[in-house]
Amino acid sequence: MEHLNSAKIILKARGLSKHYGGVVALDAADFDLREGEVLAIVGDNGAGKSTLVKALTGAVPKTSGVISIDGHETRIDNPTDAKNAGIETVYQDLALVNEISITKNMFLGREIVKDNLFGKWFGALDFPTMDKKIKELFQKLDIRIADIYRDAEAFSGGQRQAVALAKTVMFGKRIAILDEPTAALGVRESKMAMDLVCSLKDHGLSVIMITHNMQHVLNHCDRVVVMRLGKVAAVCDVDEVDGDMLVGLITGTIEHKVG
Amino acid sequence: MLNQKSSEFVSVPQAKTSGLQILRYQFMQIWQVLAALLLIYAVFFILSPAFRNVDTLLSIFSQGAILAVLACGTTIVLISGGLDLSVGSIFAVVGVVVGVLIKEYELAYPLAILGALVAGTCLGALNGVIQVVTKVPAFIVTLGGLTAYKGLAELLGSGKDLSRFPEGFQMLGSGYLMPICIMLGAALLTGLFLTKTRLGNHAFAIGGNEEVARLSGVNVARSRIYYYMIGGMFAATAAILEVSKLNFAQSSRGVSYELFAIAAVVIGGTSLFGGRGSVGKTIIGMLIMQTIIVGLAYLGVGTSFQRIAIGTIIVLAVYWDVWRRQTR
After folding, report:
1. Residue B10 lies in a domain
2. Is residue B80, in this structure, part of any structural domain at all?
3. Is residue B44 part of a domain?
4. For the residues of B228-245, what is the DSSP string, one character each?
5. Which residues span the domain enclosing B153?
6. Would you place residue A130 in the very low, low, confident or very high pLDDT band (cuts 50, 70, 90)?
7. Residues of chain A with a CB closer than 8 angstroms to some CB in chain B
8. For residues A242, A244, A249 and A251, what is the CA-based torsion angle, rounded to 10 degrees?
């Protein structure tokens, strides 16, 4: 654990809570994200993983808690705040709009407008520039999608996930948050997606990843946050745990924090 | 693997051919409705000798023009996953407003037109703002608008003689040429808006998946208000055209026009569920409807049967949309 302790803390969450009426979905969660690491978040269904991510990214307004980025307290009340703070998110089922093209999906909400009066006054879009940027990025990331003009629904789960991850590379300045990037993917597609996740690191992003796959945690992540019943039950270095131990922590048969 | 990669990238269309490819793509989108239109026209052409002349063809276009302009706005609202049942009543209000501005306030007609366009846009904005603020569904808000705006039109127009407008104003809606040109202009602007601008592209994203659009940073609420404003503006344009054509304004005009507009959009193949569609389809949908109405009239079929026919086609068109979604 010592070797990563020296790394800079890029995101610090303290006392994050989310109440839905009387239901406490997330209960005073504390954790840190260090620069350049892949941090896994694991836990049973309903343990509060997705709520934690949604509170971090402004998808739902948090009930209480403080988020600091680079040591500065940062208000994140909506998705735009998160993007401005350099956080890019890939939601599990809410990554792409089926009805619009890959180009339009990649730039949705951040379109490039023409550098002339039409662009300024009418928001006329500069498709050639957007297409070019996407092709360059796909080539760099080795994503094999030729027909970026087609609607997103024409593509396989793996291709769609690749597009969503490419979006985080294009726009993510600091932090990428991934909600089960390999859910609903086949074995080969899963591997492709995980390769992309690992390459996010090389593009200067620190990664928070929700996953159910213990193999992915042990093989690809640096640290792991275990959630149970809305609380952070443990935070440990991946080197210090094995699969059985993680399962024990998730289900509650192992009570105490390791390390 | 590397070889495969480069070969797949070769199939990416190059920039210089993309214009042609986009045209071809757009044709692939509308050829079915276009074929349906030609088929229906051909059927009446064979059945009715009186139907076979250019004047009939032109009258199909010019009669459809007013509703087609209205339907341009409806296309945008439906693509964004919204619904506006109040455009027929906005149409009534704006008709009276333009009449009152010219006859009672004796404004120059270009100013009256401007005032009427502003009135229509404001009523559309009100629809949008109420939905965004209260979260009451579009169906209910605009159903309320349908009744309330109708009342407003009656208040503004009751007991007034709004007719015999200046000659320049009458030019707009009379004859074949002007209405058809205005219809094509409205369609062109709508098409450019939907395909080339940021706000227009967001309509497809919001209609396709509102939550993804929101999480991607699209200001969904503000965009929606804009779409209803544009819908109101097109309703106003249509109303001005009709007042000009009839040379009188009355608060009773525009009844069930919103349904005809929705029918044209749906017959054209724009999805009622949002996220898909185009204004070209809407224009063809409107022409299909008008061809059937005019054609049946030439065959001596009464208006009651015409309505039954249009109603049937609306249901069939939506069924086609539902069926396509299930088999996709």
Report:
1. no
2. yes
3. no
4. HHHHHHHHHHHHHHHHHH
5. 53-327
6. very high
7. 57, 59, 79-80, 83, 89, 91, 94-100, 104, 108-111, 113, 122-125, 128, 131, 135, 139, 142, 144, 146-149, 153
8. 150
What domain count does chain B have?
A: 1
> Which chain A residue lies closest to B8 (C-alpha atoms)?
A146
Q: Do B211 and A100 touch (CB under 8 A)?
A: no
Task: Please give, rounded to a whole number of angstroms, the shortest distance from the CA of A247 to a CA of chain B.
Answer: 32
The ipTM (two decimal places) reads 0.88
pLDDT tens, residue by residue, A192-248: 888 888 888 888 899 999 998 898 999 999 999 999 998 898 898 988 888 888 888
Residue B5's pLDDT is 37
Among A178, A198, A179, A188, which residue's Cα sits nearest to residue A157?
A: A188
pLDDT digits (tens, 9 = 90+) for B204-234: 999 999 999 999 999 999 999 999 999 999 9
* Residue A159 domain flag: no
Q: Give the pLDDT band (50/70/90) at residue B191.
A: very high
Nearest to A206 by CA among A74, A42, A56, A65: A56
For tokens 């978040």, name the residue. A41
Range of the domain at A39: 2-97+172-251
Q: Which residue of A has its CA nearest to B271?
A: A99
Pair A27, A233: CB distance under 8 Å: no
Residue A86 has pLDDT above 50, yes or no: yes
User: Least CB-CB distance to A99: which of B216, B218, B276?
Assistant: B276
pLDDT of residue B7: 34
Residue A127: inside a domain: no
> How far apart (Å, rounded) are the C-alpha atoms in residues B227 and A89?
28
Residue B280 inside a domain? The answer is yes
Q: Scanning every residue of chain A, which has its alpha carbon at the shortest distance from the alpha carbon of B79? A: A99
Is pLDDT at B328 greater than 70 in this prediction? Answer: no
Which tens digit of pLDDT belongs to each residue from B5-26?
333 333 344 444 466 766 777 7
Q: Which residues of A touch B328 (CB under 8 A)?
A: 153
User: Would residue A55 count as lying in a domain?
Assistant: yes
Q: Do A59 and B216 touch (CB under 8 A)?
A: no
B128/B124 Cα distance (integer angstroms): 6
The stretches of chain B forming alpha helices (DSSP H) are 2-10, 18-47, 54-79, 87-103, 109-134, 138-157, 167-171, 177-196, 198-208, 210-215, 220-246, 257-268, 279-298, 303-327
- Given a cut of 70, whether residue B127 has pLDDT beyond it is yes
- Across B48-77, average pLDDT: 91
Tell if the CB–CB gap between A99 and B204 is shorter than 8 Å.
Answer: yes
Residue A129 lies in a domain: no
